[in-house]
Amino acid sequence: MSKTFFSHPILNSPYDYPGKHWELDADGQPTQKIIGTRREAKFQAPIPKPKKRSKGQTDAEQQSLTFETQGLSDESQKYDLFYFINSIRAKVNAWRQIPNPSDWKVTPETVRLLQHWRHHNFQSIRPFFCQVEAVETAIWLAEVAPNGGVQDKAFLDHILSVNGEANPELLRVALKLATGAGKTTVMAMLIAWQTINAVRRPQSRRFTRGFLVVTPGITIRDRLRVLQPNDTESYYAQRELVPTSMLPDLQKAKIGITNYHAFKQRVCLQGEFTEFVQIESEFKQLNERFRQP
Questions:
Q1: pTM of the model as a whole
Q2: CA-angle at 251, arms to 207 and 210, nearest 5°
Q3: In the chain, what are the helix, strand and coil shares in percent, each to the nearest 5?
Q4: Among 12-16, 17-21, 71-75, 285-289, the least confident range
Q5: 208-214 contacts at long range (C-beta below 8 A, 24 or more positions apart)
Q6: Which tops the pLDDT comparison, 63 or 285?
Q7: Cβ-contact 255, 227 below 8 angstroms
Q8: CA atoms of 75 and 271, how far apart (whole Å)
Q9: Is the dihedral of CA 15, 16, 22, 25 positive or negative?
């Protein structure tokens, strides 16, 4: 019996490189054909056939209209974005395939963490491939690309360029994961990588042990306490994200977790004064935490 998309939609293990995918046609519908490569990053939205359309209008024209209404009709922007994402994926994948750790162009501490995340026999929750790849991408950009060739450094130049156009005062890099993929785990892995390197290489400007995590609300803020190394449910130990020998280094991390409302300007009306004092107190606590050696 042949496998079809609807009876067997999942082709890859969440723990391995996604080496194949179901082909989709121009309308985002499955063709029942399996392609033996990773699906490239691109906008792919299945669009149901409209009940009414202009006379002679094709599915492709209808899809174009949908993208235009969503503000996604700039072909040059879409092409540049996808080209960048797919190119950096290819670079990270090629780097991942290098067998000798001494050729990875990263610190010994980073080598140890990468080997742990990729090969450790986890007794609890094993990181998904997408989680490891997200951290690998950050590591590649921070440690590998700066010491690479012209092509590698071009990625950094591109990131600096687009950040300069958007907000020259704040350098930002986004790692996008699907809902439920485990972004908290990725944050913990990033904090561990940076902190351990910063503690063991205090003279390096490439690493830090100070982190500010900004959440969309108080509920999420409270959930992220697992990022604190001394929390009873800390991910670093509970989920075995860090080798035991490296756990003491994490105690030197300075992690501030707050919600974005703390940055909003507020008018101190009589009924809001208590809330203002609470927010001001949180900022003072964060400042004190980061000032401590």
A1: 0.81
A2: 35
A3: 50, 10, 40
A4: 71-75
A5: 209/252, 209/253, 209/254, 210/253, 210/254, 210/255, 210/290, 211/253, 211/254, 211/255, 211/256, 212/256, 212/258, 212/286, 213/187, 213/255, 213/256, 213/257, 213/258, 214/258, 214/259, 214/260, 214/263
A6: 285
A7: yes
A8: 50
A9: positive
